[in-house]
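Per reviewer request, we include the raw input and output of the structure prediction for the construct analysed in the revised manuscript.
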Amino acid sequence: MNYLTAIAASAVLLAGASAPAMAAKQKTAAPALSATAELKTADGKDVGTIALTQTGDGVRLKLAFKGLPPGEHALHVHSVAKCEAPFTSAGPHFNPGQKKHGLKSSEGHHAGDMANIVVPANGNLTQTVLNKDITLEKDKPNSVFQEAGTAVVIHANKDDEMTDPAGNAGDRIACGVIMTKVDVGESRPTAHRGISTQ
């Protein structure tokens, strides 16, 4: 009986000792990768932000826009982290797979292609979208943190989701460089135009 009691007591002690270790492991789990983009118009007007978070299904983009023209607009990730008016500096769509443009294209689509947004009459929009074709993980072919960086651009018109190279989406009316929170907190670009080298 004493032998069995000793075994039971040992098991309880082991379980008690492992519980804090498991809790510590959970506390030290790496936080989800995240980034942000602050969008401005060609005249420097602030039109909101995008918070990007890595998920198991891709990158979740939480849009918080204000003061945009009402209506349907194209929203794309572009291949250069540079937003100088008229935002052609942001380069073409982010397209590491070298595909044709358009979510409806049989030869597409670009990793930077996303569904159109619809801005209500008051010009403000809060919405969450998921892009399954990009990642915040560095050193991946479809990472938004390439050497040249990336930016998010809003266009004047809607994307027809077919026509190469940009879906007849019209002028680029707002742009924001995708940056890690380290870059934003320090208010400076890193060696690679907004890409954190930490």
